[in-house]
Design goal:
The structure is a single chain. The protein is an alpha/beta fold and 202 residues long. A 7-stranded mixed beta sheet has the order 1-3-4-2-5-6-7, sandwiched between helices. The longest helix is centred in the middle third of the chain and has 17 residues. It binds guanosine-5'-diphosphate (GDP) and magnesium ion (MG). Guanosine-5'-diphosphate binds next to helix 1.
Length: 202
């Protein structure tokens, strides 16, 4: 994918404020700090397009970006950051579910898992929604650089067990080494070409 332009469009919390559903769209979901923003920045070769964070979880917004005037990428709010007030935590589920359920231009969701962490309830909840709404899903394991190659397969076993997905459903990625970038682009491009509702996990 050659990136000619990557621009921030807008932030929103509810459908009335989403940008018009005119361009095919791919969204990025996962817990706070999993590397959603870093992945988007690597994909579009823009170091600071999406703000990355060492104090994750503050933003409970959907952030829309327009790429090459041709499609859009959405950074979904994360979950699981301890210091977020309970009221804000409670908004996460409805906010993300409503987006997945109603966004007619959504073609696929990249679902991120941290290689060092066992998936938690919200990760599995996301997978359930993606299945329920028949949204093609691109599972990615992030921060691969944190684990030596010889230890990776053992390390990701709990992720396979918790999600029930096969090993080859996952692309390993590192924002540091850019490993996995091309493969994720291929899968995103495939998602953008597909109509909504054609499962990519089958
Ligand atoms: N070593 C390493 N650090 C990463 C990687 N991806 C993200 N990070 C770091 O993890 C933290 C959270 O990343 P961010 O993209 O903001 O996560 P988000 O909350 O999911 O958007 C930041 O300090 C990043 O620099 C990666 O692939 N490898
Ligand atoms: Mg982020």
């Amino acid at each position: 994918m050659i990136i000619h332009s990557a621009v921030f469009d807008k932030s929103a919390t509810r459908p009335a404020n989403y940008p018009p559903a005119e361009l095919p769209e791919v969204a990025f979901a996962g817990r706070s700090n999993v590397g959603k923003s870093s992945l988007i920045n690597v994909l579009v070769n823009r170091r600071g397009l999406v703000r990355t964070s060492s104090t994750p979880g503050r933003t409970q917004l959907l952030n829309f970006f327009i790429i090459n005037d041709a499609f859009s990428l959405v950074d979904l709010p994360g979950y699981g950051f301890a210091k977020v007030p309970l009221a804000v935590k409670k908004e996460w589920g409805p906010m993300v579910r409503t987006f997945l359920e109603s966004r007619t231009s959504l073609r696929a969701v990249v679902l991120l898992f941290d290689i060092r962490r066992v998936p938690r309830e919200e990760d599995l909840q996301l997978l359930d929604w993606l299945e329920e709404f028949e949204i093609p899903t691109i599972p990615v394991i992030t921060k691969a650089d944190k684990i030596g190659r010889g230890h990776r397969e053992k390390q990701i076993k709990p992720i396979l067990e918790a999600t029930g997905l096969p090993r080859d459903a996952f692309t390993l990625f590192s924002a540091t080494t850019r490993e996995g970038k091309d493969e994720i682009w291929e899968r995103i491009e495939e998602g953008l070409r597909f109509g909504q509702g054609e499962g990519m996990l089958e």
